[in-house]
Design a protein that fits this description.
Elements (H helix, E strand, L loop, with lengths): L1 E2 L3 E5 L7 E5 L5 E4 L1 H8 L32 E9 L2 E9 L10 H12 L3 E2 L5 H14 L3 E7 L24 H18 L3 E7 L8 H17 L2 E7 L7 H8 L3 E7 L4 H7 L9 H11 L4 E8 L7 H10 L9 E5 L3 E2 L5 E2 L11 H14 L21 E4 L4 E3 L13 E2 L7 H7 L8 H4 L4 H4 L4 H8 L9 H6 L1 H10 L4
Parallel strand pairs: 8-9, 8-16, 9-10, 10-11, 11-12, 12-13
Antiparallel strand pairs: 1-7, 2-3, 3-4, 4-5, 5-6, 14-15, 16-17, 17-18
């Protein structure tokens, strides 16, 4: 038996003298005492000394509630796979005393660690296992997700709009709406997923709300008859929300809406003003009050160096409005670069990859959100790039064009088909078979390869004008991921 090359250790975590072991492929997490760690170090390395390298030190946290058994057993968690996302649940592994030889008792502990993927049999080729795992994510999914843009029009003039250069006059018409419905039915009948999830987006999708009603109503009825679970969400700037509309949508399967606030009034209104220059913050807060008791309201926010510090005051405002207990998960993230009208990168913050220093400041903000008792989005969900996945994830533009990534919407070079067609085009095959991190020598011995998978291909396009190039996020995982893991322990998510 040998140590998995994808097992990494975090020293003095969650308490001094303990070691948190993470397997980046299975996402299993185990807290080890010194004896068990020594036992693992007695095993052969799996072709990579780096896998046993210390990647973080000095963390000291209480064990998560409910995961510290009274008999002193160590904590562990086992992963499960759901729609390409890795989720963690709790189990335990007993502590052991050191012995000179591998005793039956130690062997029993190793067998349990084998179930978690921490150790593997000597004859196992982990790269082959990883390739099979990626293939499963690429071609099989119990859930089909489609993001549908009802319009490119918007009533705001956000300073960082990623749809710069896109034809803003496109609206989804009645004919295209019918074709979207037919295409969705065909895909569900062919792929046979357990669940269909739609996300309506724009522009501002509520500027053209009729397709939301028509698609939502028909797919709700059809999926019910087909015994397929159905739900949808709306990503909106929040300026056009009203309670009557939301009540009607919830009858058709609406489960959540996501609204963006870029800080308190001054900072938000600078980034997200109406087209006439007036601020939008106060109207959004008013509209949230009108719908928050009718549907889950998730909150997003985009920051750069100028407005990051103001988000702490936004939290004050949200608390004062009585939103803390009612809001769904929050996610505040750096403003990244976007594609300009000439198809070149427009760098908004200097941030075009996960390893940017703004991520560290963002983590401090996330800590504060957790400390104050707001909900946050999970920090350990992992999925593969949608550009390399089958029809499980698609984005449909107002004219019916289909894309594999929302960041490329409106760029004709990235269209993979249209809802008028039953099959996607050759470009979709090129995306599905694009250069893989498993073909990149520098990636093969990286312990974070299962989590990275070659990085974001939108970032590759921005940095290299070539989505086939691999974007290395190792710095991010080594620097940021220990803190994310620490947060998950703090809030009892593991």
């Amino acid at each position: 038996m040998k140590l998995s090359k994808y097992t990494v250790f975090y020293d003095n975590y969650p308490t001094p003298g303990e070691y948190l072991a993470l397997n980046t492929r299975t996402q299993s997490v185990v807290v080890l005492n010194q004896q068990l760690k020594d036992l693992l170090y007695r095993l052969p390395e799996n072709g990579n000394g780096e896998t046993q390298k210390k990647v973080a030190e000095g963390f000291s946290l209480p064990s998560p509630t409910g995961l510290e058994p009274a008999d002193g057993n160590i904590n562990a968690s086992v992963t499960s796979l759901d729609n390409g996302n890795l989720k963690v649940s709790a189990t335990t592994v007993a502590k052991t005393k050191p012995k000179t030889l591998l005793s039956p008792e130690e062997q029993a502990y190793l067998d349990q660690l084998k179930e978690l993927g921490m150790v593997i049999e000597d004859d196992v080729d982990e790269l082959r296992v990883l390739k099979h795992w990626f293939d499963q994510l690429k071609y099989t999914s119990p859930t089909m997700t489609a993001t549908i843009l009802t319009t490119f029009q918007c009533n705001l003039a956000c300073t960082y709009c990623f749809e710069e250069g896109v034809d803003k006059h496109q609206n989804m018409n009645e004919q295209t709406t019918k074709e979207v419905i037919s295409w969705l039915k065909h895909q569900v009948a062919t792929k046979r997923p357990d669940t269909l999830k739609l996300v309506f987006y724009g522009g501002e999708p509520l500027l053209n709300a009729v397709p939301i009603y028509e698609i939502g109503e028909e797919m709700y009825r059809w999926c019910k008859n087909a015994r397929v679970k159905f739900s949808f969400g709306i990503i909106t700037n929040g300026t056009m929300l009203n309670p009557v509309m939301i009540e009607e949508f919830t009858k058709l399967g609406l489960t959540s809406i996501r609204i963006t606030l870029d800080g308190p009034p001054k900072e938000h209104n600078k980034n997200r003003p109406f087209r006439n220059g007036h601020g939008s913050f106060d109207l959004i807060i008013k509209n949230i009050h009108g719908v928050i008791d009718k549907v889950q309201v998730d909150l997003g926010g985009n920051f750069n160096r100028e407005n990051l510090g103001s988000f702490y005051r936004l939290l004050d405002i949200l608390e004062n409005n009585g939103f803390k207990e009612k809001l769904g998960p929050m996610l505040f993230a750096p403003i990244i670069a976007r594609i300009g009208a000439d198809n070149k990168s427009i760098d908004m913050t200097g941030c075009t990859s996960l390893s940017h220093d703004l991520m560290e400041e963002g983590l401090k903000l996330r800590w504060e959100v957790i400390r104050r008792g707001f909900k946050v989005t999970p920090g350990m969900n992992i999925t593969t790039c949608p550009m390399s996945r089958d029809n499980a994830m698609v984005v449909i533009a107002p004219n019916g064009d289909i894309y594999k990534c929302a960041a490329f919407v409106g760029r004709t070079d990235f269209v993979v088909g249209n809802v008028r067609d039953e099959q996607l085009n050759y470009r979709a095959i090129k995306f599905m078979t694009m250069h893989s991190a498993l073909e990149e020598d520098k990636c093969l011995d990286c312990a974070y390869l299962p989590m990275c998978g070659g990085g974001c291909r939108f970032s590759s396009h921005l940095e290299h004008q070539d989505y086939n190039q691999i974007t290395c996020d190792k710095e991010y995982y080594e620097k940021i991921f220990p803190e994310i893991l620490k947060m998950e322990y703090e809030r009892g998510a593991l």
